[in-house]
Amino acid sequence: MEGWVREILRCPGCGSPLRDGRRPDGEPELVCTGETCALAYPVRDGIPVLLVDEAYPSGGTV
User: Do 15 and 55 contact (CB within 8 A), yes or no?
Assistant: First the structure.
C-alpha cells in the first residue's frame, strides 16, 4: 500500500491511526492504535476492509 494512503487511513470506530499487523494465520490486517477501540480490520486481496462489522479484537501481533 502506498505510504500516503496509509497515512490518511483511520479507524472507522474511533478515528485513531492504524498500523500494519498480521493475523495468527499470517494474513495481513490493519490494527487500531487507539486505547479504547483496539480493533483489527482484515485486508482481503490487498484491500483493507474498514467496516466495524467486519472488525475483530486485536491480538497485538505485528
Answer: no
